Amino acid sequence: MLKPLNPLLHSELRLAIVSILVGVEEADFVYIRKETGATAGNLSVQIDKLQKAGYIDVDKGFRGKMPRTTCRLTEVGRKAFSDYVETLREYIEPR
Amino acid sequence: MLKPLNPLLHSELRLAIVSILVGVEEADFVYIRKETGATAGNLSVQIDKLQKAGYIDVDKGFRGKMPRTTCRLTEVGRKAFSDYVETLREYIEPR
DNA sequence: ATAAACAAGTTTACAAAATAAACCAAATAT
DNA sequence: ATATTTGGTTTATTTTGTAAACTTGTTTAT
């Protein structure tokens, strides 16, 4: 029987967010938005979910006078991602 | 910018179904149900969607007197799966 | 100085998807 | 004979995803 896929990560946008953060100490809202092509609303919602799950830390500060939201992956998030990828391989790799 | 993931395949159960069919000439409803642990209702619905998309062929026959639904992957489905996997790698492989 | 346009998000309302519960028809077991 | 199981389908509910509308503040133009 196939293992279940972590539903929090098995979502296109959330997976994209985490995927970006895995390779990059930190990234801000605007950057992630550009990389993913997501709408701001959708991105805001999904970042929230990842934060509530403890997968990412979100820091709201300012760059000059403009608000700036910075995200970074937590250890919990990193582990969840690598578990997810491992499980996913069972689905996509030839058996 | 990340490529979008085929939404028809980016679904745990549908991905599981196709994943099973990739390696196995054909498989019946009962077998897929056991392999995936899905409820019959959910499986029925998802098989329908894959069929309507032309990703699988569904044959309803009888084994003895009992109904038997057999599925097999079409070439279209096989191609869609391999494209999906390729795209997915951009999300899960280190960049 | 005021208004218009822009930036960075958040909230809310709607659409789509997933899922389970209820159902159906036929077969088998009691 | 009737109760249970098998092999599903249909329908209704819940969950999820997404975009549109809104908020707060900033820059730019007039």
Overview of this protein structure:
Two copies of one chain form a homodimer. Chain A is of the alpha+beta class. Chain A is built from four helices and three strands; from the N terminus they run H-E-H-H-E-E-H. In chain A, strand 2 (56-63) and strand 3 (66-73) form a beta hairpin. The model of chain A has no long low-confidence stretch (mean pLDDT 93). The A-B interface holds A 1-2, 4-5, 7, 10, 12, 15-16, 19, 22-23, 34-37, 85, 88, 90-92, 94-95 and B 1-2, 4-5, 7, 10, 12, 15-16, 19, 22-23, 34-37, 85, 88, 90-92, 94-95. Chain B binds a DNA duplex (30 and 30 nucleotides) through helix 2, helix 3 and strand 3.
Structure, briefly:
The first copy, chain A, has 95 residues and is α+β, with helices and mostly antiparallel strands. Chain A has a domain at 25-84: Arc Repressor Mutant, subunit A (Orthogonal Bundle), CATH 1.10.10. Chain A is built from four helices and three strands, in the order αβααββα.
The Rg value of chain A, from CA coordinates, equals 14 Å
CATH topology of the domain at 25-84 in chain A: Arc Repressor Mutant, subunit A
- Tell me the CATH architecture of the domain at 25-84 in chain A: Orthogonal Bundle
Mean pLDDT figure of chain A: 93
Relative strand content of chain A: 15-25%
Tell me the number of strands of chain A.
Answer: 3
